[in-house]
Predict the structure of SDR family oxidoreductase.
Amino acid sequence: MKNIQELFDFKGKVIIISGAAGAIGSEASRFLSSLGANIVMADLAEEKVKKIAADIEKETGNATLVMKVDFTEEKEIENLVKNTVDKFGKISAVINNVGWGANTPLFGSDTEKMVNGYKLNTLSAYNLTKFCMPYLKKEKNASVVFSGSAVGNTPSPEFIEYSTAKAGLLNMSRSMVVASGPEVRFNSLIIGTIDNGASSKEAGYTQEMIDNVVKGIVLKRRGLPQDIANAMAFLLSEAASWITGTELTVNGGGVYKSKMPTS
């Protein structure tokens, strides 16, 4: 029987993380590197991700590969995979983390915006996973994690572009699960509201809105990027080697509303 250190030993593993310059992506990169992995950090924000990667290499001593990638462009994703294999010789796991969506009313979008939301949040994960599959199939305990969202499995008319794309992401991952059998594991995180710096306000939240959300969360706080990184590491680890097809909800217990409200 393996001990806890062995179950979470990522030495020799090569993990691609999309959206690695963001709060969750950078924290996942840092944490998995600290566990021994070599991290491929891909993001459109090249200078930001370069700085993060340099800090990680200094902290952990493990190699990284940084690439500027527009995840709405298939050729750039294909090139990311090629460069990863050229440098490290393999791909052990993938975290499909890139994605974003602003507040958009139900009937306030249009074809271009809806399609762009799908390309960034869903199609990016499809293409990255597709190009990685030949290499993942060669690895023991190969694993793919998708960053889903609470808005993707609940009615979310305030975020129609983002929520529709994230719903598609979940069902796409379910199809990958049953088609891949024992070769590669696929799991999704259903992520609740996260304290990720300026991104929440860019998405349309005011501080008053954030405070009101926190009041309803069972654990009375928003999640931290480290909370999500912890869950990602678990799903990639040997400890989760018999887990595939799960949608792990990480949301502080969610928002509870009394069935007998007094106001």
User: Anything to note?
Assistant: Residues 9-248 form a domain with the Rossmann fold fold (CATH 3.40.50.720). The first helix runs from residue 4 to 7.
